[in-house]
TrEMBL record:
SUPFAM superfamilies: SP0830-like. It comes from Streptomyces longispororuber. Pfam families: DUF1697. InterPro entries: DUF1697. This is DUF1697 domain-containing protein.
Length: 188
């Protein structure tokens, strides 16, 4: 029995930045189509793809695409797949006043599993003010008023002890909201 067709976004981690690990978006679109997915489109060059399918779940779709990428490019690519409803929920649950911020000031890190608040308990939040973060279910919201490139808190949050054993990939608020819109998770 086939599932109903759903719209998903694939979020690739660490591609097309710097000199290596190039994944051309045209080839990513073709790979998704070759895997039998429809409605494929990419957003920006940083590894965001939207597609429809009537089979699998987030984890199996991520594993399938990850294997295809490794076979095609000869290197592993960590990635997450999230459906439109989840992406909309991330937007709706934002604990910061997103409408009053620039997209470069607010970021979401998506995780492959639920966030364990205990991992962040020892972090001295006051030492990083005015930067702040809040935890969601499988997401972390980061307010960095001077942008991610200058954020000391972003560096602290990406330490291996905090992310060990999980796939984590970040997007700025403009991309977060655009992916929610492209996956049909934007019902406003």
């Amino acid at each position: 029995m086939r599932m109903a067709t759903k719209i998903y976004a694939a979020l690739l981690r660490g591609v097309n930045v710097g000199g290596g690990r190039k994944v051309p978006m045209a080839r990513l679109r073709t790979l998704l189509e070759e895997l039998g997915h429809g409605g494929v489109q990419t957003y920006l060059q940083s590894g965001n793809a939207v597609f429809t399918t009537d089979r699998g779940d987030e984890d199996s779709l991520a594993a399938e695409l990850g294997a295809a990428l490794e076979e095609e490019f000869g290197f592993g690519v960590e990635l997450l797949v999230r459906d439109g409803a989840y992406l909309r929920a991330v937007v709706d649950r934002c604990p910061f006043p997103a409408a009053g911020l620039e997209g470069r000031q607010l970021h979401v890190t998506y995780f492959s599993e639920p966030v364990d608040p205990g991992r962040y308990a020892a972090l001295d939040r006051a030492a990083y003010l005015p930067e702040e973060f809040r935890l969601g279910d499988r997401a972390l919201y980061l307010y960095a008023p001077d942008g991610l490139g200058r954020s000391k808190l972003a560096d602290a949050l990406s330490r291996p002890a905090l992310t060990r054993g999980t796939v984590a990939t970040s997007r700025n608020w403009n991309t977060v909201t655009k992916l929610a819109e492209l996956t049909g998770g934007d019902h406003r």
